[in-house]
Amino acid sequence: MSISNEIVLRPRFKIELNHGNACILKTFEDAKTTSKIYKIVRVDDHVFIRLPTHEQQFWSPQLHLEINEVDDKTSTLHGLFGPNPTVWTMFMFLHFLVAGLFIAFGIWTYTNWTLKNPYAFPLGLMLLMVVVWFGLYFAGRFGRAKGKEEMHGLYNFMDTTLKTNGLI
Question: How far, CA to CA in Å, does 58 sit from each of 9, 16, 53, 54, 66?
């Protein structure tokens, strides 16, 4: 699996499988009881693979698999790497907060400029929001790089589970 150096913070992949989704989901249900390294949770057609709670770091990724049935003998596995949902929600909240503040400071800057009042301070705050946004972006890239080895481990576990049961 190649995780390229693109802007994407949550890498995705897609695999076509020559088995129905019930068979694939059963394989992961069975792996739940035998796996000592990873915690596996299944909800409907979704499978979540992550490290046990005591081994997780702040940036530890999880692998979300969605297995869609194309017909009785074919399925599509969609994989998505991402941080813990709580971390991702906080991260997105901070992005929206920075965007909202940028817009608010932009309105304040424009109002002061229109009224011919000094506008250096709100303009500086607008620029600060741009710097904060870049900081959030690079923090996300740092987190992805820090969790890259764990992402490979999750992918290899999924791949081994499917290959062991003859599904790939």
Answer: 15, 32, 11, 11, 24
